[in-house]
Amino acid sequence: MSFDIPSPKDCMDHLIAKPGKKFVLSDVPTRDESLFDSKKIARASCEEDAHEINRLQDILYAERKQSLLVVLQGIDTAGKSGTTRAVFAYTSPLGLQVAAFKKPTEEELAHDYLWRVHAAVPRKGFIGIFDRSHYEDVLVVKVREFAPKDDIERRYDQINAFEKHLTENGTRILKFMLHISPEEQAERLHSRLAEPHKRWKFNPGDLEDRKLWPDFMKAYDDMVERCSTDHAPWYVIPSDSKSRRNAMIARIVRGTLEDMAPEYPDPGWRPEDYDF
User: Fold this and answer.
1) For the whole prediction, is pTM greater than 0.70?
2) How far apart are the C-alpha atoms of 252 and 85, rounded to whole Å?
3) Burial 67-93 (b: 16+ CB within 10 A, else e)
4) Which of 70, 62, 68 lies closest to 171 in space, CA to CA?
């Protein structure tokens, strides 16, 4: 590129919620232009990284020894689907597993809350994307009081243990909290109603959650502080700017895949061994 962009490490260091430290979401801006000077630079960076993510995923798929789980968590309209489209724009769907966690089914409710999540963890060789995740069980479940407080309190340690189990068995985890302002959410909700092709996305229930904004932000405080660990830290992404949001996440995904350093396997075939 002919312009300066931050390294993946720069992005990680700037955006990480440091494990073991006090975390307050209101201390983090929802718009941050320090990593990418302009939206044009951010879009160009994301475009290049998306191509490289595709190349690295191809090697990961061929290798079949490790996997990457990308968790996208954020309040309604934060941009989970948009992030997926941009960051993985060129990645072969053969190597992607996308799970969108909605209201649990009757069967899922008959099991422990992590049962449906473990079943969706990516196989070796795959990149898995969680659109919402097991963290709903310490967010909406907590705010809406869908489970006893004591049960919810135990879940933070249970989630940390679950994620440590995954990392110790070949799954690298990237967790992104998409952080937007209430003003930005209002604009995006209005856009969903105003534009016919987006209207299907609108859910009146989102307005009920919006009334509980302070409670949700406190739940996010607890989630990030208690579940940002050395093996699976949280990255808090200022997301009022969609292009910068995508660029930040693409940089970190690319850097993580580079660090995983997948290699094409050698099956032993040689051109000279065959007559065409």
Assistant:
1) yes
2) 16
3) bbbbbbbbbbbbbbebbbebbbbebee
4) 68
pLDDT tens per residue, range 180-204: 999 999 999 999 988 888 888 888 8
Each residue of 226-275: pLDDT tens digit?
999 999 999 999 999 999 999 999 999 999 999 999 999 999 999 999 98
> Hey, what are 244's tokens?
């910068």
Asked if 74 contacts 242 with a C-beta cutoff of 8 angstroms, the reply is: no
Closest CA to 16 of 155, 130, 174: 174
Cα(113)–Cα(130) distance, integer angstroms = 15
Q: Please state, in angstroms and as integers, the Cα–Cα distance from residue 246 to each residue in 39, 51, 59, 76, 133, following that order.
A: 10, 14, 23, 17, 19
How far apart, in whole angstroms, are the C-alpha atoms of residue 240 and residue 170?
33
Q: How far are the Cα atoms of 86, 115, 132, 179 from residue 81, in angstroms, in the given order?
A: 9, 24, 10, 14
- Residue 68 DSSP label: E
* Residue in the block written with tokens 């209207």: 199
Is the pLDDT at 3 greater than 90? The verdict is no
**Residue length of the chain:** 276
Query: Is 239:183 a contact under the CB 8 Å cutoff?
Result: no
The rounded distance, in Å, linking the Cα atoms of 163 and 232 is 7
The fold of the 8-263 domain, in CATH, is Rossmann fold (3.40.50)
Q: Would the pLDDT of 1 be above 60?
A: no
